[in-house]
Structures are given as C-alpha cells and as structure tokens.
Amino acid sequence: MKKKLLSVLMVFTVAASLAACSTPAQNQLNSTTQNPKDITEKQYKIGISQFAAHGSLDNCMEGFLKGLEEEGISQDKNLTVLFENAFANPGTAGQISNNFVSNNVDLICAIATPSAATAFTSAMDTEIPVIYTAITDPVEAGFANEDGTSTGNITGTSDKLPVEAQLQMIRKILPKAKTLGIMYTTSEPNSISAIKEYESLVEKYGFTLETVGISELADIPLAADNLITKVDCITNLTDNTVVQGLSTILEKAGSKGIPVFGSEVEQVQNGCLAAVGLDYVELGVITGKMAAKVLKEEAKASEMKFESITEFGLYLNNETAKTLNISIDEEYAKNALEIF
User: What is the CA radius of gyration of the chain?
Assistant: First the structure.
C-alpha cells in the first residue's frame, strides 16, 4: 500500500514538474493564439527615388514617411525603405528605378518629375505602383489626364505654384519693378508649364518677363550673370536644378542689389526675400497617406486622381530685406506665416 501511494505521488510530482517547465512556452503559445496579428501583420518594402539633394525634396521625403506612419506603416514596425538620390542626374534616376523593380518592391515613391518619369517607365510592365510628389504639372508630365485621372498605375501630389498670388506679392513689395526674371531647366516639363503660366499673367501686373534656360547645374553661374543684367527682380520656380544652385543665384543677384523671390518656405529661409508658397513636409504627408491606401489595398493607384495643396502661405526674410534696403509694409507682413 505504501509503495503504491509513493508511486502515485511520484507521478504527480513529475507531472507538476513538467507542467512548470512548459508554462513559458505554453503562455507564449496562448499569447500567439490570442493575438495572431502580432506575427502575421503584413510587411512592406518600398523604394524612394529622390531626384536631387535640396531642402524642398528632403522635406517631401520627411513628410512622406510621416504620412505613412500616421496610417500605421513605419520603419520600426512593418516597413523596409530602400532610398536612393539621383543627384539631379536623369540617367542615375533610371538606374535607381530599375533597381527597385529588380528588388520587387511593393511601391515606388518618386520625388520630382524626372524620378517619377523613370519610375513610371521602369514599372510599366509590372504590378508595382508609383506614387509621385513634387510634380508641378502631372498632366504635362504625362502622369494624368486633363480630368486628373491616372494614365497608368501611378498617382500622387502636385506642387503647382500659385503663380498669380506670387505676382501679386512681388508687386506689393516692389511697386516700381518692371522686369521679372526666371531661370529654368529646359528639359523639365514642370518648369516649362510654369513659364507658360507666368507669360499669360505678367502683363496683368505690369511686368515684362525675361527668361533664361539652362541644361545642367554647371550652367547656372553664366546664366545668372546674363539674367541680372536684364531684370529688376528674379522669381524662382520649383525647378530642381535651379534650386540646387540657389546659393549662386542669390550671391550674384545680391551683389547687384536685385531681390530674388522663392517659391516655398525653404528658399526664403535660405535667403530669398519672400514667397507665397507651400509647405513641402505637408505635401509629403498627403502623399504618404495616398501611398498607405495603395499598400493596404484600400485603393489602386490607377484609380486615384492626383491631389494638390490648395492653401499657401506668405513667407518673408527680414534679414534679406535689410541687406537690400527694401521696406516691407508692416501691415502686409502681419499676414506672413513665418518671418526669418
């Protein structure tokens, strides 16, 4: 009887010991069973192709990742990002997009028109969607139809300039200016589209327009020397090559007392006198949210119209105004979102 009782106790002891040893694993299994999403949540891999290295486009990328994160897609959770910068070389932009396609990314984000054009071409025969940003005129670039619908598996956001508001601002600050200058890259559809709009409106505000085209960054010093002999002021577009050479333009124009106006806040912060422009971080956020819908399969890029920012802000640089001996009306300055 004692031997039988002892045997029973030993069985219970071993069983209890085994149960204790298996508890962590069992708890983990129970946890997994209760929260299957923890191990089955979809992982995303995207490629970001940025055409040039300057503040506006950097802000676009920052906003893009922020927009994704606000929709639950982030690098510390479920997102792998392949990022490449073409440094304003169209050939490099093409290599980048081809590489993304080879890596079978889930989506390509293309920042600026040349990168978007190469990404669209590279992904044409695949199912990889392209989401663009910092495109002035998606219709002119061939990414959208006149009604805003997509021409393929591509959509995104436009940074179209508020040209008339910009002209109103320049006239307000420089009531006596007559000739307005613009430098632009002849191969950028964005810039050509903006030039056409300026041409249609400058006379209304009492300006004549003087333009000079460039092909590459190295052309800027000579082009700036040429332009400053013909104009009373200069306004910048969102032209990627020109923006990269902005410091050169500011230096040469400043030496002749010629004010340079920007097209967005970053350019004003870097020394332009003023701008009625957009916030590129916010533009990127909108783009990121569009991309999140595509990644989550809530919408197809081919079925989404491109979007634009409709609210623009006034930005002023008081230091530049003082350097150029330009007085900005105090009442008008109260309208500025930011003054540097």
Answer: 28
